[in-house]
Every structure is written in C-alpha cells, then in structure tokens.
Amino acid sequence: MDVAPIGEDGTLHRWAETRKGEGLPQSPLSFRVGFGYDIHRLVPGRPLLLAGIEIPFDRGLLGHSDGDAVSHAICDAALGAVGLGDIGAQFSDRDPKWKGVSGSELLERTRALIGERGARFHQIDVTVVAEAPRLAPHRDLMIERLRALTGTELVSVKARTNEGLGPVGEGQAIQVYAVVLLELAGG
Ligand code: MG
C-alpha cells in the first residue's frame, strides 16, 4: 500500500515501514488534522449567525464579516491542516472585498482551497461556548448546514456555557473551538 510521507524527513513514512516490518495492519496515512479557534463580541443590532444559520437572539456577533465564529474556526482548522495559514491570510479583514462576507461563503471557498491541495473534509468536531442563547435546539440544523457546506456527514456540534466565568460567561462574546480531519485524495 502506498504511504504518503510527511515532512522533510519523512517521519511517518519510516514509521509505516517499521509497522510493515512488524506485520501490523497498514494505514494509508492519508489524513491531516487541524485545530481552529475563534471569538467574536456579542453586540446589539446584528443578526446572530453560527454555522451558516441565523439563530433568534437580541444580539449578534460583531465582525468585518458576518461574525460566524463556527464557520471561521472550521476554516482556520482546515487551512492550518494543509499549510495554508489561517483565515486572515486567505480572506484578510483589511480587504474591502471580504466586508460582510458570510461564514458560509468562507467555508465554501476554504473547501475549494483545500481541494486544490488534494484535500477534502473527512470529519469535523466543534465546541461552541456561549452563555446565551441556548444553542441545543438549533444543533441539528447547524449540523445539517455544515454537512452541506463541507461535504462530509461526520459533523459534530457541541454547545456549552462558560459557567458564568470571564467575558464569555458574562455573555459578552461567543467562543468556538474546532478540530477537523482532512482526507488526502489518493492516499
Ligand atoms: Mg472570526
């Protein structure tokens, strides 16, 4: 089975060769992992957009774009996984072109960018930290939307509060953590 070497020294390739010698099951090693984080301030007079859907609330997330911290964290994780930097490097908030751009569009563009590197979304796991509103009733819709935008069925969205602690716990902001696993075409 072909093995995709990683890094200048081919560390994983050597590891796989060692495993082969031990008669252990082979893995194609065709995955890359990425981690993303985002935080946006909650302010009045903005719609609350998370994972490409609008959630009824009296405040929304402030940002040069639509403030969709879930989409942004996933983009950052995916871009990092293939060495394309981060969302700021690809879609700068200093560029008027991206003013008001939706998180959905950034996710679609990120999907295309990683696609040019031969990668596609395999699995996504997201944790949203918000004191309010309660996100559980919207979780299924968020997951469906993320599945459509990223092309993988393996999407998880978890929501929790910050136990009243710090600015997030006081409801001043929403924080998001995301881990993505990308699959490389051709192994
Ligand atoms: Mg952001």
What does it look like?
The strands form two sheets. This protein has a five-stranded mixed β-sheet with strand order 4-1-7-5-6. It has a two-stranded antiparallel ribbon with strand order 2-3. Residues 9-15 have low confidence and may be disordered. The radius of gyration is 18 Å and the shape is globular. The chain has six helices and seven strands, in the order αββββαααβαβαβ. It has a single domain (11-184), classed as 60s Ribosomal Protein L30, Chain: A (2-Layer Sandwich). The protein has helices spanning 11-21, 69-81, 87-90, 103-116, 139-150, 166-169; strands spanning 31-44, 48-50, 53-55, 59-61, 119-129, 155-160, 173-184. The longest helix has 14 residues, at 103-116. With 187 residues, the protein is of the alpha+beta class. α2 packs parallel to α4 (103-116). Bound molecules: magnesium ion.
Q: Keywords, please?
A:
alpha+beta, 31% helix, 60s Ribosomal Protein L30, Chain: A, 28% strand, two-stranded antiparallel ribbon, single chain, binds magnesium ion, 187 residues, 6 helices, globular
Could you give a quick summary of the protein structure above?
With 187 residues, the protein is of the alpha+beta class. 31% of the residues lie in helices and 28% in strands.
